[in-house]
Write a structure and sequence with these properties.
The chain has 16 helices and eleven strands. By secondary structure, it is of the alpha/beta class. The strands form three sheets. It has a seven-stranded mixed sheet with strand order 5-2-1-6-7-11-10, sandwiched between helices. Strands 3-4 form a two-stranded antiparallel sheet.
Length: about 425
């Protein structure tokens, strides 16, 4: 890897001519309208442009690792650049999504998907959801009105019972998820999803499928199909289901030469919460308890029972967070909230376990790039970027640096950074 040039890369990305608060191209907004990268939105997704710039500095022989896969941005960029990349995530839905994004789809796949949709739109369905399976999503009526839900259930039932190949089904699943979230009673105007008030019925159909659901699904499907026609790339991509705190047991190799990733931020924002509608429809979640348990396994998880589990959690005395002000910071947070103090402490304990695990699968001289954001709880700043830098140093990395990338659209003191180091 061109380490000397790459470690100075962000001076160009974060150009002084563009104010920190106006770099929306370095957020998920920069991924919109970018083909496969925009198939399904995860609000905290990091910048496609950022990853592309980093990947452009790699050699053809580099072996890339993303230990926090998310929606598969790093994997897909590497595939498009013809590079080898392994990526890991503890969430099975995100593993599926990354694999679907990096799959090559044939014209035959697209034609079969289109034929299925045409036949589905010609079939009649009742206005009631009786007879159709719907996911056991808590208060599902908040998400979709009765007519919309019946229509979605009818289409999903047809898809689930079909004998289509997995690649064809995946194209239709992507289109289904996109359409379902478009008609859901939710807003993405802020960092996280929220429900909105209905001002009128958003029923998708009257007496049959065609008049209203058909155009919606056709439009969404054609958007997916157009990007699916563009090859995912020639890179070799492997997506693994596993825990980033124990990479040695997940990954088949120990010679990665570059790491490009963005771990969850310690801001109590739950990925499970944001992904619930997709995960319930596709069968990756069946209950709120299961959602909470999966979030508890994830670094920074805080959904459902994950919060109550925090009150039973105790720090591992053998895991040292290498920041001299860490204990004092935790005590300040504890003065406001015991659960938040435990949350932040556990987050960084997990981060230490991850970085030490990461070190064991890297080749000597590997360059790592972590996109992270700082946090603030009450009046206590959490300098995430500097704590990560200290963790890297304690794990034997050198040439550690921190670069401020952009102002985040939240509290005025919150920014996004790239923490880089050499193994």
């Amino acid at each position: 890897m061109k380490n000397e040039r790459t470690l100075l890369l962000f001076e160009d990305i974060a150009s002084r001519t563009v104010p920190l608060g106006r770099r929306e191209h370095l957020t998920f907004k920069g991924n919109e309208g970018q083909g496969r990268h925009g198939w399904l939105r995860l609000t905290p997704a990091y910048s496609l442009q950022l990853v592309q710039r980093l990947v452009s500095e790699l050699r053809d022989t580099d072996l890339v690792l993303d230990p926090f896969c998310g929606t598969g941005t790093t994997a897909l960029v590497c595939s498009q650049a013809g590079l080898r990349c392994h990526t890991v995530d503890i969430n099975p839905f995100l593993v599926w999504l990354a694999r679907a994004k990096c799959t090559t789809y044939s014209e035959s796949d697209i034609s079969r998907a289109r034929l299925f949709l045409r036949r589905a739109c010609q079939s009649r369905t009742c206005r009631s959801k009786e007879g159709h399976w719907v996911p056991d999503l808590h208060e599902i009526e908040k998400w979709w009105n009765k007519s919309d839900l019946a229509t979605l259930a009818h289409l999903f039932g047809l898809l689930s019972s079909s004998s289509l190949s997995e690649s064809v089904k995946n194209l239709l699943r992507i289109a289904f998820c996109r359409a379902a979230i478009q008609v859901a009673n939710v807003s993405f105007g802020h960092q996280s999803m929220s429900f909105r008030k209905r001002t009128h019925s958003s029923a998708l159909f009257e007496d049959d499928f065609v008049p209203s659901l058909g155009p919606l699904f056709w439009r969404v499907f054609e958007e997916v199909a157009a990007s699916a026609r563009v090859p995912a790339g020639s890179g070799s991509i492997k997506v693994h289901l596993g825990d980033s705190r124990n990479l040695i047991e997940v990954l088949p190799r120990r010679d990665f030469t570059a790491v490009i990733t963005s771990p969850p931020y310690p801001n109590r924002m739950s990925y499970i919460r944001e992904l619930r509608p997709y995960m319930y429809w596709l069968g990756y979640l069946k209950s709120g308890r299961q959602a909470g348990e999966l979030d508890w396994q994830a670094i920074g998880g805080t959904w459902g029972c994950a919060t109550s589990n925090l009150m039973k959690w105790k720090p591992n005395k053998s895991v040292i967070i290498p920041d001299r002000d860490f204990d004092a910071m935790i005590e300040k947070i504890r003065g406001h909230s015991e659960v938040l103090a435990r949350y932040v402490h556990k987050y960084f304990e997990d981060a230490v376990l991850h970085v030490y695990s990461l070190r064991r699968v890297l080749a000597s001289g590997a360059a790592v790039f972590y996109v992270v954001g700082n946090s603030k709880f009450y009046d206590v700043m959490v300098p995430v970027e500097s704590i990560y830098a200290e963790i890297f140093r304690s794990a034997g990395f050198h040439r550690t640096s921190i670069e401020k990338i952009r102002k985040r659209t939240s509290k005025k003191e919150l920014y996004e950074y790239v923490v880089s180091a050499i193994a």
